[in-house]
Amino acid sequence: MPEHKLAQEVLDSLHEGCQVISPEYRYLYVNDALVRQGKQSREQLLGKTMMECYPGIEQTAMWNDLQACLTDRVERTLENEFTFPDGTRGCFELRFVPVPAGVCILSLDVTASKRDAEALARMQEQLWHAQKMEAVGRLAGGVAHDFNNLLSVISSYTSLMLTDLPSGDPLRDDVTEIHKAAERAAQLTRQLLAFSRRQLLEPRVLDLNQVLGGMENMLRRLLGADVELRLVKSPGLGKVLIDPSSVEQTVMNLAVNARDAMPTGGKLTIETRNVELDEGYADQHFDVTPGAYVMLAMSDTGSGMDRATQARIFEPFFTTKPAGKGTGLGLASVFGTLKQSGGHIWVYSELGKGTTFKVYLPRTRDDAASDPPETPPPESVRGSETLLVVEDDDAVRAVCVNILRRNGYRVLEAPNGGEALMICEQHPATIHLMITDVVLPRMSGRLLAERVAPLRPHMKLLFMSGYTDEAVLQHGILESEVEYLQKPLTPDTLLRKVRQVLSAKRSAPG
Questions:
Q1: How far apart are CA 18 and CA 158, in angstroms?
Q2: Are 373 and 292 spatial neighbours (Cβ–Cβ below 8 Å)?
Q3: What is the mean pLDDT of each run of 10 residues along the chain (510 residues)?
Q4: pTM higher than 0.90, yes or no?
Q5: Residue 291 CB partners (closer than 8 Å, separation 6+)
């Protein structure tokens, strides 16, 4: 066998990609693995420059190392994330080796292993948190049980003493205070039992709309005149199987927290809705089973929370309130009660903007026949339009862009309103849809939409936020006729909504 044929077979048998690049960045040689990695044939690559085959490659992290290797002839290694022309992303371990003809680049595709490692890390973090909460719950349950025994003795004896003491006895007031203190302590132990999921529940099939209707007057008195209460009860709401007192305690605890977060007044919006939590959502939330749920959302316009606080709010005895103003058991008991009932709670908050708690309770099968028919899915969620994604959270923006590009869309992205405005001014072609977060630094999503309207009068708009839509309306951020998508996002919900907005008969793109 000729020597060059043998060398070709050896190189083509390698798992690593191998390419030789000239000083003018032209492909001089590629092996089979590189062809598979690069998603282009030898004929499409050989003789052409890297910039011709992969527009924008000079903007990637590896470009400076490639230039340096061509110049100083020193071997270099790095890890590089790369976006292909079809929108998919890959991660490669690269090794640059100077050769007489230019540079030999050896590349190992580590996309799958990196994705698996990230997913594993995310699952481990959620598992660690769940295990921590479970351990604390067992401890809390044990403590509550022991304290209940002690409090039973105290309460019983003080009750007996109050029965025996005549009304004018000077000891009666003291014993009364001891009895009241025991009752307050018993309430704390009940909350500990709720957190540890050891309370006795009596579940019944309930309509949350009816429960909220019965609590409305009590909630208005609890919130006071400075807080405006708005109930948005979805028609055709499915029923849930849960202890009635658990629902009432959940609503009351969340309402008290909302009131305390709005000391100078504000708005509290309580909403109900039928929702579907899909596999994508369940993959991101360790303790969620996909299926049909009823959502109860409570959104305030208060002070909000930072991420460090959000990570601890369901831990028992954790509180941001001043000493003597809170036990730190309210949200812990909500968490435990919902878990015991097969539910799930999710929180979204922005400092200075407010907080939304979303409670998800499984819909009962007995009520399945009364559920409204599901909207038929579109024939395809793929598309080829140009979209602009505006989101200040880097991780959220990256996943949105990735999802959309994987499904054929051409995607532009901006971390804030200023850069989005610049893109709208300078992009030479049509932008069919702008997807923007409602809450952005310096320029809100609503203000951005107003600024780009004269520049792109036919561009469609889709707003997104962790707030529920009725709460966003109450914040005065959006008008009621705009298209809106609630976080947390999943690929299915994002793609369906984008396709729905793009297909709506409104105006031709321009």
A1: 85
A2: no
A3: 58 79 91 84 88 86 87 87 78 90 89 70 60 60 64 78 85 88 72 52 85 90 91 93 83 89 93 90 76 93 88 74 60 75 86 91 66 52 94 84 91 94 95 91 88 94 70 52 73 87 64
A4: no
A5: 276, 277, 362, 363
